[in-house]
Specification:
Helix content is 79%, strand content 0%. The protein is mainly α.
Length: 135
């Protein structure tokens, strides 16, 4: 039965927190932040003016992702962390890559921006599923 009761909210919150850390580091000027800003046409002043509401919505989406990943783990019951990571990569390839590439083609998103976003997303999913596997 696919119940929606999560028994370990600590794991969900921890996975979400670490996902935010990965995203912040990935988009920082020390990693790919400058290139991401250039490709996305975002200025530093634009980032500083993002509303709290937008950040809260992003956080809610990250929490939802963690809940859904946990459900996938429960349903598929991987026996090792490597199997869990493979699951996250399949989820990424089947849902995130396909959606981003098709959308990117029609929205004329640069290949660099798609790559930056998609690689960041797979890193986030791997991080989250690694935490959720043990929690």
């Amino acid at each position: 039965m696919l119940d929606f009761i999560i028994t370990n909210w600590f794991g969900i919150v921890l996975a979400s927190f670490l996902a935010v850390i990965v995203a912040v580091v990935w988009h920082s000027p020390l990693v790919l932040g400058k290139l991401w800003q250039k490709e996305a046409g975002i200025k530093s002043k634009d980032i500083k003016s993002i509303s709290v509401t937008n950040y809260l919505i992003a956080l809610l989406m990250i929490l939802l992702t963690a809940v859904v990943l946990k459900r996938f783990l429960v349903i598929t019951n991987p026996q090792t962390l490597i199997e869990a990571i493979r699951l996250s990569i399949w989820i990424w390839a089947g849902f995130m890559v396909t959606y981003a590439v098709v959308g990117g083609i029609f929205e004329k998103v640069s290949k660099k921006l798609m790559a930056i976003d998609l690689i960041g997303q797979v890193l986030i999913l791997i991080t989250m599923i690694s935490v959720l596997y043990y929690n």
